[in-house]
Design brief:
358 residues; alpha/beta; six-stranded parallel β-sheet; 29% helix
């Protein structure tokens, strides 16, 4: 079957091959025919080594498709079911799951170290234990979440990661208060979803911050009240908050420099929400006095900061009701053979989300 493979960490191009086989099928597993998958910035971060991932590997973790086969003991899905791929399934038994923090379950991460593909030359890993830049993938049954018939595969794929992450950061993690002021730094698919979440929660001012003009223009269509380049953020802070700082600031880039800017843009007693996934060796520096004196809340948000199955259902309900716009998040569409074109679109900032149709 066809799949897009990264041979070595640090390469900037994927090779689309037709000699890849999905492996590992057996009890508790399902085989999925992937129909659509989104390109998320985390895929690029894994390719360049920012996020740890063994290679060679197949990127992709934001996917949807149909069940081809199920292993022994699988009862919640059957062949023919339409599903989205959950890259971080909850085991239901670990301490995090028992506390109700299923987004912190580590069971899914354990899968990342087990190859679920192979080629004639050897084993191939799937990013985050999945790997959706392929025609078929074998994953744990918990990764396959049934979707209603009225949800298209491309919309379901977005809900599988970017939408859930951004919406959840605003709704679950930060719990944005009605009438508040918000700034979102980084306005790709996840940042735009955070903007939509803040709008749903009733934020009065939502300032979108991004260096790419087309993304700033898009942010206004999705609910931002103002959109500025990074060098104009200080002026927006002064005008909108009289220099005090925003009630909530979302960092959706995953770099210490933008996190530091976000901290300085948050008012005393306000909330800084870290959404971007950064590198192990990129350290955010804060002094002990400002931590104590400013009393700013620093809230990391992992996969939307809540139970992902509940978050999926909520996103579908809001989309059906017309309260969030998911179709317009998909600004580009390509076939699997054009995957490197999709990577260029993401790196240049011209795409909010590119859908790879498989």
């Amino acid at each position: 079957m066809r799949a897009a493979v990264l041979h070595e960490i640090g390469q900037d191009k994927l090779e689309v091959l037709d000699d890849v086989e999905a492996v590992g099928f057996g009890p508790g597993k399902v085989k999925i025919r992937v129909r659509a998958t989104g390109l998320c910035h985390s895929d690029v971060s894994a390719m360049n080594g920012v996020l740890p991932q063994p290679a060679p590997f197949i990127p992709g973790h934001e996917g949807a498709g149909e069940i081809l086969d199920v292993g022994d003991g699988v009862t919640k899905v059957k062949p023919g079911d339409r599903v989205l791929v959950c890259w971080l399934p909850a085991c239901g038994a670990c301490p995090a799951c028992r506390r109700g923090q299923t987004q912190l379950c580590l069971a899914g991460f354990m899968n990342a170290g087990t190859p679920n593909f192979k080629r004639p030359g050897g084993d191939v890993f799937g990013f985050a234990g999945t790997g959706t830049f392929t025609e078929e993938v074998v994953v744990d049954a918990g990764c396959a979440v049934p979707i209603p018939d009225d949800v298209p595969f491309d919309i379901a794929a977005l809900i599988g990661c970017g939408v859930t992450t951004g919406l959840g950061a605003a709704i679950n993690t930060a719990d944005v208060a009605a009438g508040s002021s918000v700034a979102v730094i980084g306005c790709g698919g996840v940042g735009i979803s955070a903007i939509q979440g803040a709008r749903l929660k009733g934020a009065a001012q939502i300032v979108a911050v991004d260096p790419v003009a087309s993304r700033r223009e898009a942010a206004l269509r999705f609910g931002a009240t103002e959109a500025v380049a990074p060098d104009a953020l200080g002026d927006a802070k002064q005008r909108i908050t009289a220099g005090e700082g925003f009630d909530y600031v979302f960092e959706v880039v995953g770099k210490s420099a933008t996190a530091r800017t976000a901290y300085e843009t948050t008012r005393r007693g306000g909330t800084l929400c870290i959404v971007g996934a950064g590198a192990l060796d990129d350290f955010l520096q804060l002094n002990m006095f400002e931590l104590f004196f400013d009393e700013k809340k620093i809230l990391p948000s992992m996969y939307g900061g809540g139970d992902v199955l509940t978050s999926y259902e909520r996103a579908i309900a809001l989309w059906r009701a017309g309260r969030i716009d998911l179709e317009s998040l998909i600004t580009h569409r390509v076939q699997l053979a054009e995957i490197n074109e999709a990577l260029d679109q993401m790196r240049s900032g011209t795409a909010l989300r590119t859908c790879i149709e498989i």
